[in-house]
Amino acid sequence: MKKRSAYFFSISLMASLAACGQNSFNDSDPAALRLPEDCSFREGIKLCAASLTKLIVHPSEYDGSSLTTEGFLAISGGYFMLYPRRSDYVDGLSYDRIMVAVPNEKIDNFCEEFCYSYIMVKGEFRDASISGKYIPYRGEISNVSNVWKIDPPKEREQASDVFRH
């Protein structure tokens, strides 16, 4: 019985290694990378336009990418946090959020203009789970290059209804 278990273990191990070899990629060849469908490569940079929900569910797929996303910005625990919806912030969902890192010299103006509103933000995304430590958010957007205030989702739906009729 022990021989049979060892045999199946070695077969499983070899199959796993073979599969890893087939799916491995070369960082120097962007075309070889498997990108999420909402990402592309331009001049060696991974560019994405991802929903906040996708970032929360699959943060490792977007790690290191320059991306644009949108959500409700609020202060929680002294940090700027981006939530998919305002209700997620109000309900205290601490893990379904992304931290937005803003340089100290821009904090006052940033909060005055964007806190507690829906925004679209462009920056560099990092998966928080890579550190191996418990962090109560899924990732971080740093090197923020652009931020825009946008209408709440319901108002955007109502505005688009006007054009349908």
What do these coordinates show?
- The structure is a single chain.
- The chain is α+β, with helices and mostly antiparallel strands and 165 residues long.
- It has a single domain, classed as Beta Barrel (OB fold (Dihydrolipoamide Acetyltransferase, E2P)).
- Helix content is 35%, strand content 30%.
- It has 6 helices and 7 strands.
- The chain has a 5-stranded mixed barrel with strand order 3-4-5-7-6.
- Strand 1 and strand 2 form a beta hairpin.
- The termini are far apart.
- The N terminus and C terminus are likely disordered.
- Give unreliable regions as ranges: 1-33, 160-165
Average predicted confidence as pLDDT: 75
Helix/strand order, N-terminal first: HEEHHEEHEHEEH
Largest sheet: 5 strands, mixed, barrel
The helix content is 25-40%
Which CATH first-tier class would you pick? Mainly Beta
Strand content: 25-35%
How far is the N terminus from the C terminus? 72 Å
CATH superfamily: Nucleic acid-binding proteins
The largest beta-sheet arranges its strands as 3-4-5-7-6
Count of discrete structural domains: 1
Got a strand count? 7
Under CATH, the topology is which? OB fold (Dihydrolipoamide Acetyltransferase, E2P)
Rounded to the nearest angstrom, the radius of gyration is 21 Å
CATH architecture: Beta Barrel
Structural category is alpha+beta
Oligomer: single chain
The tally of helices reads 6
Shape: globular
